């Protein structure tokens, strides 16, 4: 009887350990939550975050193609709370913005609404990628 119990415990441990290792490898990494093209001088987009059960602690924006001025970002969390961040920053092409901390140490996100515009004297389409830091 003891041997059977030990066997079951070891078998379950062997099955669960890779899942724990995969979660640990994913935790604390930046994940792309969505990408949008900014063609106009003024634009608003919604980044719908897939319901993958992800919990995020911080958000940032990566920009390519053209510089982007970000005015605001409104984050809607799964529990219905919403927070609006006044960003008011120009993010140069090929760079990543500073990260903003989400309240509560880690939250599930439904969507993020951003109000931004590409640089007026810049040429080409700006590509904005919203990234979240996993808990």
Q: What is this structure's SSE topology?
A:
Blueprint: H1 2-26, E1 30-38, E2 43-48, E3 56-64, E4 68-77, E5 82-91, E6 95-96, E7 100-101, E8 109-118, E9 126-134
Antiparallel strand pairs: 1-9, 2-8, 3-6, 3-7, 3-9, 4-5, 4-8
CATH architectural category: Sandwich
Tally of separate helices: 1
Number of strands: 9
Tell me the quaternary state.
Answer: single chain
Q: Helix proportion of residues, in percent?
A: 10-25%
Which spans of ≥5 residues are poorly predicted at pLDDT below 50? 15-26
What is the succession of H and E elements? HEEEEEEEEE
The largest sheet is: 5 strands, antiparallel
* Secondary-structure-derived class: alpha+beta
Q: Fill in the CATH topology.
A: Jelly Rolls
Radius of gyration: 20 Å
**How many angstroms separate the termini?**
40 Å
Q: Determine the mean pLDDT.
A: 84
Strand content: over 45%
How does this model look, in words?
With 135 residues, this protein is α+β, with helices and mostly antiparallel strands. Mean pLDDT is 84; it is low at 15-26. A hairpin with a 4-residue loop joins β4 and β5 (82-91). It has one helix and nine strands. It has one helix at 2-26, and strands at residues 30-38, 43-48, 56-64, 68-77, 82-91, 95-96, 100-101, 109-118, 126-134. The protein has a single domain (29-134), classed as Sandwich (Jelly Rolls). It is 19% helix and 50% strand. The chain starts with a helix and ends with a strand. The longest helix has 25 residues, at 2-26. Strands 1, 3, 6, 7 and 9 form a five-stranded antiparallel β-sheet that branches. A four-stranded antiparallel β-sheet has the order 2-8-4-5, with no helix packed on it.
């Amino acid at each position: 009887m003891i041997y059977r119990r030990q066997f079951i415990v070891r078998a379950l441990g062997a099955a669960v350990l890779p899942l724990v290792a995969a979660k640990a490898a994913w935790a604390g990494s930046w994940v792309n939550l969505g990408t949008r093209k900014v063609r106009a001088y003024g634009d608003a987009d919604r980044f719908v975050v897939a319901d993958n059960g992800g919990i995020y602690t911080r958000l940032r924006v990566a920009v390519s193609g053209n510089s982007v001025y970000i005015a605001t970002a409104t984050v809607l969390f799964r529990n219905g709370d919403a927070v609006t961040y006044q960003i008011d920053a120009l993010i140069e092409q090929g760079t990543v913005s500073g990260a903003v901390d989400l309240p509560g140490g880690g939250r599930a996100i439904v969507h993020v609404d951003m109000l931004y515009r590409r640089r007026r004297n810049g040429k080409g389409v700006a590509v904005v990628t919203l990234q979240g830091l996993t808990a």
